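Supplementary Note 3. Input sequence used for the single-chain structure prediction.
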Amino acid sequence: MSGAKDKAKGLANEAVGNVKQGVGKVTDHDRLRAEGKAQELKGKAQQVKGDVRDAVSRDDRDS
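The predicted structure, written as discrete structure tokens, is reproduced below.
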């Protein structure tokens, strides 16, 4: 269950990060663009964390 939560949070962070990057690009705001990129990467990492938790959970059930 927590794997799904990590994935959902990751998707949300990735989406918000992409929006921040877009706004930063349009407004020529380098700091906002950088914050958006950082948030996007955080979201991707959270999704990977969710995938790992799901895989571990499946392995535990199979044992």
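The radius of gyration is 15 Å. Residues 18 and 29 are 14 Å apart (CA to CA).
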